[in-house]
Request: fold
Amino acid sequence: MSASDEAALLARARAVMPGGVSSPVRAFGAVEGEPPFVARGQGPYVFDRAGRRYVDLVCSWGPLILGHAHPAVVEAVQRAAADGLTFGATCEGEVLLAERILERFPFAQKVRFTSSGTEATMGAVRLARGATGRPRVVKFEGCYHGHVDALLVKGGSGLATFGRPSSAGVPEAFTALTEVLPLDDEQAASELFAHKGREIAVVAIEPMPANAGLLEQRLAFLQHLRALCTRHGALLLFDEVISGFRVAPGGMTERTGITPDLVAVGKIVGGGMPVGAFLGPAALMDQLAPLGPVYHAGTLSGNPVAMAAGRATLDLLAAPGTYERLDALGARLAAGWQAALAAAGQPGSVVRVGSVLWLCLQGGEAPRAFHRIAPQGAALYGGLHRRVLAAGTWMAPSAYEVAFVSTAHSEADIDAAAAALAAGLAELPSAAAAPAPGKGRRA
Ligand code: PMP
Reply:
């Protein structure tokens, strides 16, 4: 495989897929250089087509908490696949995975499976509107809940990278019932409820916002949202697509001790296969068809192969010491990154919750709200990313995305990733010479 083969494949990809990708941030639009194709993944590594190995800190954007191709997950998938790929009828694997999910989220009694995180939040919002009979949805600036029309407003993830707050193709009428609030601001939430509380069906939030950097929220703020929802008869939806099974078996619901009305999960719950789910108390979930009037369906929902991958993953995560290990590896990477920033004299900090980390390239206190993220960090990151990749570590191709550590990473892998950042920072032109914000941004 030569460089010209790679360039030719990239050209073919761009000829047949918009931007050459199936999801925008993969196009490397916000960083320098061209995206390598990934040929395979093994444990903590991805390999490009030339066989070059990278320590993977993206981990497929979160699902691969056990690393790539964990033998027990692969075996579970192979065994399930041999018995048929999809039935369009209920299979035992759905029951087994639902039971495991509910053990970890004891406030809930029922689960509805989907094929993605987007579908999980979409279903949860529809259910909330159907169950309350109210029209309005509240979301927070910088939080991303998938590409659901009503929630595709001032989102994070690819939208932040794109440099546009919202998507074209979503008519204003579709988002007229969406209220967007700043994170970390009790007063703004109180004021909205004072005016429109009776119309609000649901407050949707990533309790650990991880799609516009890692905007750790104060517990008091999340508790305030819970209290407002309870007082005004609105539902609280925790979008735990990233945090679920990641920061604790029961995600932020467990960590905060707050009881939401609905939780959406995805990523880890499918063990690398396309799965999402939403869950809640029986009386609420039973409003879904076929028992209730709120329609939700899916040809591949509850897919037997995906259910097997999710079950194997959750079972492996239940081994004693797993989360302590993930936390220790996360702490090691944070310390390594912090040392790299200090050695380079680069202002910044590392925000970390367990095995989720954000390299925050701005001085002062780490931001807790989207509008407090300085754009210079993204400009600096564009050049840094290419250098870190060249040094053998695969970081997210966007300053707004977080890094994930898996149980497959060794201490040596973590140290190599920190050394790659140090090498990248050392090579970087000074911050003052960094390109202006916005340069190179494309979908
Ligand atoms: N919610 C959150 C918090 C997410 O991070 C994501 C995806 N990164 C989604 C929802 C959408 O999930 P999916 O990409 O599987 O549709």
Q: What stands out?
A: Residues 373 and 406 are 27 Å apart (CA to CA). Residues 431-443 have pLDDT under 50 and may be disordered. The pocket of 4'-deoxy-4'-aminopyridoxal-5'-phosphate is lined by residues 61, 116-118, 121, 144-146, 157, 206, 211, 239, 241-242, 266, 276 (CB under 6 Å). Residues 71-317 form a domain with the Aspartate Aminotransferase; domain 2 fold (CATH 3.40.640.10).
